[in-house]
């Protein structure tokens, strides 16, 4: 076969293979610059067969490119001054200097229209010329061209989570036992009074009861691969922080809502012996004041913290006078987070319509064991798969020493 004829045939084969490979790459490209060969319509079979087919086509592409380069060199050996008029191909194989391509500017100044324009001294109003396709078929943009490199920053935005509120404000203590046990006086009949000289003294009555609240275990875990831990050191801190914060978030939730039935901790709203005020028929602020008086009267304590659902609290913050003035402070200022002089915690961890006040010096969180983060590959089949289980847990109990020092408010509106 003649060299030129053979060269044309090989270049056409190479062009067809290039087109097929380009289509496969475009079909398989997924987000992040990765490739999914199972998405290609030009390949068939399972993943391994598709990988082998891609390797075969790449080997054939390299071989055809080498053949084209060899034939071009052979043709030049016969006639160095003659460039073979061959069909263009899509990929650069052969001598890159084989075809001299003029730039758009060079074509412009060499055109007969521009030369006529220059000959007339630039007096023509405008000139028009057609450059044809001239390698301008595809507009080079960041979407269809050379994408700029993008380097990810080290910033990590966490998932939105409500901050810790009441739990950070309550007293904390320690216990070395599996339960926190203490004595609480449950009857105090005080009969002390004046008496006549010959009369008997009045008899008082005092009794106590033993109260025991069980220490509970609070924890969670996540699976993670060894490669993830090794290749992304930052993930260690993220995991450690998320696991630890998750425990504190749960404790903050249980402080309000815990049922007290093991393994749930005893929360305030389900606590036996606390006061209750109904806000259904009275203004919210009146209900808060009545709850404060309830604690003062029945628990002989002075409330130091109040709490309220965030949506209900927004109603308070937006209260206005008859002439439209905001009662809880101007919108340009931070409104006071206090009710009747008592610090208030706005939270979405209590149900809408529920609030409360209390003297939180009359309770504490007793910790049996601090927060511990542990890692192991001994879970299930994790060792042979190179995976780890990371666990965080703590043990503690909410101790309510004087339930009557707290009051729940219902039907807040």
Report on this structure.
The protein has helices at 3-28, 47-78, 104-110, 112-119, 226-231, 234-257, 284-298, 310-317, 382-385; strands at residues 172-174, 179-189, 205-214, 216-225, 275-278, 305-309, 338-339, 342-347, 355-358, 363-376, 387-400, 406-410. 31% of the residues lie in helices and 21% in strands. Mean pLDDT is 85; it is low at 85-98. The chain is an alpha/beta fold and 413 residues long. Helix 1 runs antiparallel to helix 2. It starts with a helix and ends with a strand. It has nine helices and twelve strands. The strands form three sheets. The chain has a six-stranded mixed beta sheet with strand order 5-12-9-6-8-7. It has a four-stranded mixed beta sheet with strand order 1-10-11-4. The chain has a two-stranded antiparallel sheet with strand order 2-3.
Structure characteristics:
hypothetical protein PF0899 fold, elongated, 413 residues, alpha/beta, six-stranded mixed β-sheet, four-stranded mixed β-sheet
């Amino acid at each position: 076969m003649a060299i030129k004829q053979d060269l044309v045939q090989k270049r056409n084969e190479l062009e067809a293979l290039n087109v097929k490979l380009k289509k496969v790459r475009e079909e398989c490209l997924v987000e992040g610059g990765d490739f999914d060969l199972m998405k290609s319509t030009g390949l068939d079979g399972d993943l391994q067969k598709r990988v082998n087919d891609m390797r075969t086509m790449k080997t054939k592409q390299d071989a055809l490119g080498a053949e084209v380069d060899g034939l071009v060199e052979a043709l030049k050996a016969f006639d160095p001054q003659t460039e073979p008029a061959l069909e263009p191909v899509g990929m650069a194989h052969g001598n890159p200097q084989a075809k001299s391509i003029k730039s758009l500017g060079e074509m412009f100044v060499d055109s007969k229209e521009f030369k006529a324009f220059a000959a007339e001294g630039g007096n023509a109003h405008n000139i028009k010329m057609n450059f044809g396709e001239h390698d301008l078929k595809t507009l080079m943009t960041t979407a269809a061209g050379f994408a700029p490199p993008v380097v990810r920053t080290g910033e990590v935005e966490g998932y939105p989570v409500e901050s810790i509120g009441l739990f950070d404000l309550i007293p904390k203590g320690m216990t070395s036992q599996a339960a926190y046990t203490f004595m609480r006086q449950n009857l105090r009949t005080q009969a002390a009074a004046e008496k006549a000289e010959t009369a008997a003294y009045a008899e008082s009555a005092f009794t106590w009861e033993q109260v025991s609240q069980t220490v509970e275990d609070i924890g969670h875990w996540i699976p993670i691969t060894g490669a993830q831990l090794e290749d992304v050191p930052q993930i260690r801190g993220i995991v450690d922080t998320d696991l630890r914060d998750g425990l504190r978030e749960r404790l903050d939730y249980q402080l309000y809502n815990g049922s007290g039935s093991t393994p749930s901790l005893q929360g305030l709203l389900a606590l036996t012996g606390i006061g209750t005020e109904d806000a259904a028929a009275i203004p919210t602020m009146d209900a808060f004041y009545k709850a404060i008086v309830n604690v003062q009267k029945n628990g002989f304590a002075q409330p130091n913290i109040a709490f309220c659902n965030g949506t209900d609290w927004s109603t308070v913050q937006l209260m206005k006078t008859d002439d439209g003035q905001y009662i809880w402070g101007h919108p340009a200022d931070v409104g006071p987070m206090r009710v009747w002089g008592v610090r208030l915690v706005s939270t979405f961890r209590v149900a809408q319509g529920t609030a409360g006040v209390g003297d939180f010096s009359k309770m504490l969180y007793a910790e049996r064991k601090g927060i511990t983060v542990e890692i192991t590959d001994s879970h299930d089949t994790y060792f042979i798969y190179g995976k780890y289980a990371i666990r965080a847990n703590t043990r503690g109990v909410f101790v309510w020493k004087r339930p009557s020092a707290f009051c729940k408010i219902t039907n807040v509106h």
